[in-house]
Specification:
- Chains A, B, C: This is Bifunctional aldehyde dehydrogenase/enoyl-CoA hydratase.
- Chains A, B, C: InterPro entries: HotDog_dom_sf, MC_hydratase, MCH/BMMD, Thiol_ester_hydratase_Rv0216.
- 3 copies of one chain form a homotrimer.
- Chain A has 8 helices and 12 strands.
- With about 350 residues, the first copy, chain A, is of the alpha+beta class.
- Chain A has 2 domains: about 160 residues, Hotdog Thioesterase (Thiol Ester Dehydrase, Chain A, Roll), CATH 3.10.129.10; about 160 residues, Thiol Ester Dehydrase, Chain A (Roll), CATH 3.10.129.10.
- In chain A, strands 1, 2, 3, 4, 5, 6, 7, 8, 9, 10, 11 and 12 form a 12-stranded antiparallel β-sheet that branches.
- Chains A and B meet through strand 2, helix 1, helix 6 and helix 7 of A and helix 1, helix 3, helix 5, strand 8 and helix 6 of B.
């Protein structure tokens, strides 16, 4: 009898297959508190019911990155438990706000598959949808991972590579924004007078602070997200592995960096979409993570003159001064200190 | 004036005495979140209000092990603050479901007492009842501990050893299960198609994953349970003690093992009773805990054809491969790697 | 463009200036749970909705020290991000109870300013008010900090030193106590029979237990409070600094000591006012914190014969036996082990 906990290998995936992921999760104000202890978020909309209500939310929404982590966590046992690498994301959009008390579930469809030339593994493309208790999509994204084969003799499937957009176009974002009355957005309480109009394409922003990772922190975060990827929790195995230590969940770096972004982008309260992300290098306990952002693009949002979107390339870097903006070198390779390259659309008041 | 925080010694206990334990506790969704960060539980019933409601719960119940830890924590200052060893449990049953917002309190009755031949300590037997805000018992168990005497000259009490059942009989369990409509139990969302009928007596199940313990984690867990046993928190004292380090609360191992049990027993959503438990060896920060289970017995539940009970012997082991099922050796002694031997009744759909 | 995250320097403060601090925060039962995991509070009023309701609260109030940390956390980016030292507190009173769901915001008024003779820094006095969502003050205190100048050539402001009370007089405390029916206060459930009448001026109380600090714990606490002071989180910088390690937030020591106070002062459920506090020495991960209290004074509360106030000097000490009551030496200097000297008013039943 196969233990479902063993996870899927490359030959277990089939084009068109739909996977219902286990363990729906009711997200609560308790989760927001644990999340706050782990990342120290300070965006006013998600921190204060009153602030959120003043601009038209029924209550403070769940931080977008917490929604992301919970949805991705659900997919791990089925999609990436035996993954060698997370290769990419595309067509990643938040579609509905999530509030305390909502229950998130996730399904994935296999939209592409390609065995690698080595015959030992292959790339699986899935489109994952996180839904609320009413079945409404709250988050959707395509993702591709490299997965080992269990049985090297299993035949290669026909290669299908999905046609995915290079980036999310701004006319398709904002689905997770309810109708808002931004006239009541209080910039003093939000922590900065800097609005959409104050930022320029090409501008680089140093997010100043650094956060040193502890084993207990990244383990608690990853369990909070019910993410079971083994490399994060097991020193007995990982101590004998490639790095000699537990690997930090890549999403932990995303949330450290995203929440450091408050320093300089205090009003960028909503992460609306992700154009792409690379976990450039692994992170470990003891690393100090810094972040900086570059404004790649600006876009108005359909029919709204109160809010706008910034396309932001957020770099997570470690053990270095982010004031130097370490990113990509002239030869196209990343600087040694870069751990995360995260290209997203953020929404902020105009 | 005696500081109540000093706790009771052997001669402070008297047969028939009732102890009202301090600090009732309202259990909240916040506690569930902290618990999730500490143990990563994935049983769908406790994780999702919607899943729970679909089968007839008013809302997701509090995880049984969280209820247990809170009740046992209340008893520590009175019963086991000066205990040398936790010797056993019996007649341990969950009697009512506990929901967020319920307030747990605990009382214990001294049901047995026996001074040891050394004259330095003795065994105290108590029956502890955890009640909700309506005074209804939610959990009840007998427990015996070895406690030091304060004054070696104190006279020995008359020995009374209570008559405790060898194990909990299945006809007495299920009190904490409300009337359920298991037709709406979704096995895809629950994470496994394996039901009660799929398991056989004698079957061994490897729970695969390992969790490395961090000092911050076991301390936070033990404080969450308002358990004040000194050995878990004080490196200044324990550094000079027998082990040179802080001892991990035995219940921390129980919850690590219980929640690893999801891998292979995903549908065993309710821990209904405990037949006995031994903390076989101490655990410390840095240990990696694994778990495996053996099915000892199967039982139908009174008048219910939708759910059944499995008697499961759950072993917690450390720094070894659980696929080898390390347990009891031929000479009746435990394998070196065993830290927990936990004989319980679990309920799952048929 | 100045990044608001850089914080204020000495010359940015002006007498009479009002600072609206960023990021209002809705306090939830989730925060209470995280706080419980960090400090293990056991005061019954804050732990149990039922206990609180029995004496007249609508629901269990938020622990006072959690309210304090959240309010002080809001002031850090504006007031103390570039502070060299926290010099003192005065006229510190809790004014309204705070309940789960309440939203805290904070403003500060600059009430004094004095450049130091070195010309490199100065002292800034602020009066901070934490308000709830209705704008009602929940906590108010004066505080003074030493802050660096950014530009040494900036002219010195006119010196104004505010006239602050030496201590809070008992006739001005109790604002955060609703009308209570103390006849229903259950001393068994509260953990001790010792009431206000049982304590004497001059009495010293050993709070017994010790708590060893972990990096993950103080970082999670400090982030929970949205306190961004850089020295607590960044080993990359602090490893090269004066101490070679991250400094623990002084408030972390306050809450460890305050919650150890349960051992001996179990009924002192409300911290009503602070007369003054000194962070005598820095604390670091690995330190084991103990606490002891001396009763400095006793006071009746205006028109109430059911509760009374104790003026308590709470010492936090490290890596030593608190039974020795290490405090102030004959020469007026602190014993080496003292880290916190905290002079407060506590309220308890008579």
């Amino acid at each position: 009898m196969k233990n479902p906990a063993a996870g899927n290998f490359f030959e277990d995936f089939e084009l068109g297959q739909t996977i219902v992921h286990a363990t729906p999760r009711t997200v609560t104000t308790g989760d927001v508190s644990t999340f706050t202890a782990l990342y120290g978020p300070r965006f006013a909309v998600q921190s204060s019911d009153k602030f959120a209500q003043d601009i038209g939310y029924p209550v403070a929404p769940i931080p977008d990155d917490l929604v992301f982590h919970i949805v991705i966590g659900k997919t791990v046992p089925d999609v990436s438990r035996n993954a060698i690498a997370n290769l990419g994301y595309a067509e990643f959009r938040f579609l509905k706000p999530v509030y305390p008390g909502d229950t998130l579930a996730a399904t994935s469809e296999v939209i592409g598959i390609k065995q690698n030339s080595s015959g030992k593994n292959g790339v699986v493309y899935v489109r994952t949808t996180g839904t609320n208790q009413a079945g409404e999509p709250a988050l959707q994204f395509a993702r591709w991972v490299m997965v080992n084969k269990r049985n090297l003799d299993a035949p290669a499937p026909e290669t299908v590579i999905p046609d995915l957009d290079d980036h999310v176009t701004p006319d398709t974002i904002g689905g997770a924004l309810p109708s808002l009355d931004m006239n009541h957005y209080d910039f003093d309480l939000a922590g900065s007078p800097l609005r959409w109009d104050d930022f320029e394409i090409g501008q680089k922003i140093n997010h100043f602070d650094g956060q040193t990772i502890e084993e207990a922190e990244h383990q608690m975060a990853t369990r909070l997200f019910q993410n079971t990827a083994r490399v994060h929790f097991n020193q007995h195995i990982e101590g004998q592995g490639r790095f000699g230590r537990r690997l930090v969940y890549g999403g932990h770096i995303i949330s450290i960096a995203r929440n450091l972004q408050f320093n300089g982008l205090s009003n960028a309260f909503h992460w609306a979409a992700l154009n792409g992300a690379a976990h450039v290098a692994p992170s470990f306990a003891g690393d100090t993570i810094y972040a900086w952002s570059e404004i790649l693009d600006k876009a108005e949002l359909d029919g709204r003159d109160d809010i706008g979107a910034l396309r932001v390339r957020l770099f997570g870097v470690k053990d270095c001064d982010p004031a130097d903006f370490p990113g990509v070198k002239e030869d196209g390779k990343y600087e040694d200190s870069v751990v995360l390259d995260f290209d997203c659309w953020l929404v902020m008041p105009r």
